[in-house]
Write a structure and sequence with these properties.
4 domains, elongated, alpha+beta, Elongation Factor Tu (Ef-tu), domain 3, conserved putative lor/sdh protein from methanococcus maripaludis s2 fold
């Protein structure tokens, strides 16, 4: 039987469509019955860190810094009388060392010796006149007693030459004062060192004519030098300054040029004003025998004026304190602590003292706490941590 063309065309389309339908049904059944993978929660890994165990201890607050050496005493010597320089101390020059009482400059004494002799003669004459007047007074008293008259006190003083006697005594006193002044001026021709020291500058030489306005030399004391040290104002409360009752805080003084040698000083005072620019407080440290001339300092490095030295002041003691290295302080005021459950705990600090090396705390940390010294890229509270001393639980991997 013959089919028409339209029927044949439909049969040809039906076969492919049937095959596609069967294939789609089979694929859907395969996907529906296949096993599904479940999404597992990732396991948190504990990070390996290094720690430092802190402990309470008694510590002295130590304040340090660089300070400049200055003289404790510096004077410019002026003569107290005019004259010609007759002699100066042998070898006197800038840098020369002198001892207290050494004769530095001697002026020509001839004129002053003449004045002393003149005043000695005046005193002798005044004494003679006083004795004569005392004799006249004795004669007047005898004559007054022989008369038997009774005069008033004013009249009696005149009769007994009391005014003349007082005048003679006054003349003697004046002569003696003039003699004392002449002898004092004579002694002032000998200019001596007021203390142990060194000559900074000298402008007079034998033959120089000087007056009381002539600056002869500049002299600094070598009994002690001072160090001016600037420190933050808030650190003053930890320091002790010398007074009549006790010594000031001890100071260790060092310099890179000295190697391992050091010198000792004492904190003696604090300036009443702050530095205008830095707003820092200025403290004064005293160094005795800076040139190391005494037996006790033999072999120690000498100290020079204007030198820049490091001073470390041992301040007051703090009990039950915890000292933290500065490198363990994070974000200016935080530390990382390994908690009891092996997680990170971030704590904020309130140090009682802090400098560029360390911080000292009285609260915020406990004896035995472990500080994390390792670096962490994303530190957050509760972050799991572990140390080499605490291995992983068996079966777990980092």
């Amino acid at each position: 039987m013959n089919m028409n063309p339209s029927t044949q065309h439909l049969k040809k389309l039906a076969v492919p469509l049937l095959i596609l339908a069967i294939s789609g049904t089979a694929a859907w059944q395969l996907m529906a019955t296949s096993p599904k993978a479940s999404r597992a929660e990732p396991e948190k890994k504990a990070r390996l860190v290094d720690t430092i165990t802190v402990e309470q201890q008694a510590v002295n607050i130590r304040v340090s810094g660089l300070g400049t050496v200055i003289p404790s005493q510096i004077v410019t010597l002026y003569p107290e009388v005019n004259g010609q320089v007759e002699n100066i101390l042998k070898g006197l020059r800038p840098g020369s060392s002198v001892r207290e009482g050494d004769l530095l400059v001697a002026l020509d004494q001839d004129e002053y010796q003449i004045l002393v002799r003149e005043q000695q003669a005046t005193v002798a004459q005044a004494m003679s006149e006083l004795k004569l007047e005392q004799g006249q007074q004795n004669i007047a008293r005898q004559e007054y007693e022989l008369t038997g008259n009774k005069l008033s006190p004013e009249e009696e003083a005149l009769v007994l030459r009391q005014p003349q006697l007082e005048a003679a005594k006054a003349t003697l006193n004046q002569a003696q004062a003039n003699l004392d002044q002449a002898e004092l001026n004579l002694s002032r021709t000998q200019i001596k060192a007021p203390f142990n020291g060194q000559i900074i500058s000298n402008t007079v030489y034998p033959g120089s004519q000087i007056t009381t306005s002539t600056a002869m030399m500049e002299l600094i004391s070598t009994n002690s030098f001072w160090i001016e040290l600037e420190i933050p104002v808030e650190q003053l409360k930890w320091l002790e300054f010398a007074n009549e009752d006790h010594k000031g805080s001890a100071v260790e003084i060092t310099s890179p040029q000295w190697g391992k040698d050091s010198r000792q000083g004492e904190l003696i005072s604090v300036s009443p004003e702050l530095n205008d620019g830095s707003r820092m407080a200025k403290v004064i440290i005293e160094i005795k025998d800076p040139l190391a001339r005494l037996d006790v300092n033999q072999g120690k490095p000498p100290i020079l004026v204007n030198d820049l030295l490091r001073a470390e002041i041992t301040g007051k003691k703090v009990n039950d304190a915890i000292v933290i290295p500065d490198e363990l302080i994070r974000n200016s005021d935080q530390v990382w602590v390994l908690s009891q459950d092996d997680t990170l705990e971030i704590r904020t600090l309130m140090p009682v003292y802090r400098d560029s090396d360390k911080a000292i705390l009285l609260s915020g940390l406990n004896d035995g706490d472990q500080l994390v010294s390792s670096s962490l890229t994303t530190p957050v509270n509760g972050l799991p941590l572990r140390t080499a001393e605490k291995p992983l639980v068996a079966g777990k991997q980092p």
